[in-house]
């Protein structure tokens, strides 16, 4: 199955023997080469196969190639950072973080600033979950957590001088809306007291539709939130029972409609393919419902069953999981349907309406990637608050302690709750630029990297370019003397391409657990 829309001069010109499967003709027909049994080499029959997918911007299309996915679908990092978080070390301490903030203070002009706040509480457990969360019905626990977040904000703000206004603020979890309304307001006020938040900042929150009313969404909007991310995963009741997340279409619609009615400018929804009891028919019905509410962005994650890492997954029966083939079929269906509905493929597991800021940023080559995934905000510093949160300041990454006890203990001692981090060397910074360019633009211009980092690209990356040769032969990338371009066929596999530039992965001196690429 493939998903590609392309203007064609004429069907004959497109359907040469070395071409692959289907093409869309100028008249919008999908034409497929079919080799009849017993036909001589190079003899094909042209058939019209199905209605064309209607990408509003064909440059953002993606091609689904089952054979290539089977060949390259190993495990690999998601590259929300480079080096990846498993390379962070405990030798990076709170003192190192303080030094990084001081270097930031001395930099002119100061880097743009973003904030992330991790709110870990959930009132029920979803069996597929791999997040750092605390499941509890005791709402008193969040009050204490917010008090300590206040302490962390005070310490960090005391170390930052003359910061530019915050351009992006995200609350993730866990379930941020586990907090009572007065707690939501208290936390937002603490952030506004500590940081100057730009009037036009992107302020986003993750919402569990099972737990919030339209009134709460209105309240959250009044606090300044203008973007919302809504977890759905799958509307199929069988799947919902298997993952312990019963969520009706109605309560989901209520939240999305309330967000639109109260001035939220962007609605994202999360879906997961590969869940237990999932079927093509069931997920197709879910896609119908999702497309009918027209979210601005859709994240379509693959479920990774790793019960040795995430305990709740032990409650999922392995026999209920779709086979690898069925899982790929569901992904293919979703890509096809989202493309037909006009969604642009942004990268990895993200889709956006062509008029959404993400799709526009991708076309204008201003897209970035950070711990929240793809972003329209300029690459700057990220201050992360709360347990397990990961921040980025200059050429360092820093992660907070993961348990509440450790978090409270450090803050009681007036210390930053740093667990680990990493200071990047020049090679890391260079490779970060390379990987970011591939992940965001599906293209890497040697000249841009050379002028940024003072190297000769083909000399510095001779080994990596050689390692890409099989991917070139398979049509996933095109390499010339100016650039590396990821083809439509290679886009779904961009992680496999980026991995060729990951020196720390190649050195392999640490064991890491990565998710499947597809
Ligand atoms: S998926 Fe979200 S709501 Fe469910 S347990 Fe995980 S963090 Fe909580």
How would you describe this structure to a colleague?
- The chain is globular.
- It has 518 residues and is α/β, with parallel strands linked by helices.
- Mean pLDDT is 87; it is low at 1-39 and 43-56.
- α4 packs parallel to α5 (181-194) and α9 runs parallel beside α10 (324-340).
- The chain has 3 domains: 1-52, no CATH class; 71-82 and 426-518, Arc Repressor Mutant, subunit A; 85-385, tm_1862 like domain (pyruvate-formate lyase- activating enzyme, Alpha-Beta Horseshoe), CATH 3.80.30.
- Bound molecules: iron/sulfur cluster.
- Residues 122, 125-126, 129, 131, 133, 173-175, 208, 231 line the site of iron/sulfur cluster (SF4).
- Residues 122, 125-126, 129, 131, 133, 173-175, 208, 231 line the site of iron/sulfur cluster.
Write the layout of secondary structure elements.
Blueprint: H1 11-14, E1 22-24, E2 30-34, E3 45-48, H2 66-72, E4 75-76, H3 94-106, E5 113-119, E6 121-122, E7 134-135, H4 140-159, E8 166-173, H5 181-194, E9 197-207, H6 214-222, E10 227-233, H7 237-243, H8 249-261, E11 266-273, H9 280-292, E12 297-302, H10 324-340, E13 344-347, E14 350-352, H11 357-363, E15 368-370, E16 373-375, E17 381-385, E18 390-393, E19 396-400, H12 404-412, E20 418-423, H13 426-441, E21 443-445, H14 446-453, H15 457-460, H16 462-467, H17 469-473, E22 477-479, E23 483-486, H18 488-491, H19 494-499, H20 503-507, E24 515-516
Helix pairs in contact: 4-5, 4-12, 6-8, 9-10
The chain binds iron/sulfur cluster (SF4).
Residues 122, 125-126, 129, 131, 133, 173-175, 208, 231 line the site of iron/sulfur cluster (SF4).
């Amino acid at each position: 199955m493939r998903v590609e829309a392309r203007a064609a001069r004429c069907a004959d010109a497109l359907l040469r023997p070395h071409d692959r499967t289907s093409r869309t003709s100028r008249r919008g027909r999908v034409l497929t080469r079919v080799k009849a049994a017993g036909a001589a080499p190079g003899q094909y029959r042209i058939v019209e196969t199905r209605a064309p997918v209607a990408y509003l911007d064909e440059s953002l299309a993606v091609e689904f190639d089952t054979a290539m996915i089977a060949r390259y679908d190993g495990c690999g990092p998601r590259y929300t950072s480079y080096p990846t978080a498993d390379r962070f070390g405990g030798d990076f301490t709170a003192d190192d973080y303080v030094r990084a903030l001081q270097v930031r203070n001395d930099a002119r002009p100061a880097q743009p600033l973003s904030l992330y706040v991790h709110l870990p509480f959930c009132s029920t457990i979803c069996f597929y979950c791999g997040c750092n969360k605390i499941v509890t019905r005791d709402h008193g626990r969040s009050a204490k957590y917010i008090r300590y977040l206040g302490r962390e904000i005070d310490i960090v703000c005391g170390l930052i001088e003359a910061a530019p206004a915050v351009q992006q603020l995200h609350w993730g979890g866990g379930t941020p809306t586990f907090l009572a309304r007065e707690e939501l307001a208290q936390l937002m006020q603490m952030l506004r007291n500590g940081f100057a938040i730009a009037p036009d900042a992107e302020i986003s929150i993750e919402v569990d539709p099972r737990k919030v009313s339209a009134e709460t969404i209105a309240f959250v909007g009044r606090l300044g939130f203008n973007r919302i991310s809504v977890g759905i995963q799958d509307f199929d009741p069988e799947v919902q029972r298997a993952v312990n997340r019963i969520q009706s279409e109605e309560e989901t619609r209520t939240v999305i409609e309330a967000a639109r009615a109260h001035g939220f400018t962007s609605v994202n929804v999360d879906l997961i393919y590969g869940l237990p009891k999932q079927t093509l028919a069931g997920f197709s019905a879910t896609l119908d419902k999702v497309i009918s509410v027209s979210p601005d962005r859709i994240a379509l994650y693959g479920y990774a069953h790793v019960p040795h890492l995430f305990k709740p997954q032990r409650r999922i029966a392995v026999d209920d999981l779709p086979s690898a083939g069925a899982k790929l079929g569901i992904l293919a269906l979703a890509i096809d349907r989202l493309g037909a509905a006009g969604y642009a493929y942004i990268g990895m597991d993200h889709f956006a309406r062509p008029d959404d800021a993400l799709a526009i940023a991708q076309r204008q080559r201003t897209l970035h990637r950070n711990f929240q995934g793809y972003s329209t905000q300029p690459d700057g510093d990220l201050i992360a608050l709360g347990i397990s949160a990961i921040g980025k300041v200059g050429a360092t990454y820093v992660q907070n302690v993961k348990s509440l006890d450790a978090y409270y203990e450090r803050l009681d001692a007036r210390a930053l709750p740093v667990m680990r981090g990493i200071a990047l060397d020049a090679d890391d910074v260079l490779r970060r630029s390379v990987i970011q360019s591939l992940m965001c633009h599906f293209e890497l211009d040697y000249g841009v990297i050379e002028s940024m980092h003072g190297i000769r690209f083909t000399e510095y990356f001779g080994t990596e370019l050689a390692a890409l040769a099989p991917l070139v032969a398979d049509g996933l990338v095109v390499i010339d003397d100016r650039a590396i371009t990821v083809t439509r066929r290679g886009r779904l596999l961009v992680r496999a391409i980026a991995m060729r530039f990951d020196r720390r992965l190649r050195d392999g001196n640490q064991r890491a657990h990565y998710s499947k690429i597809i």
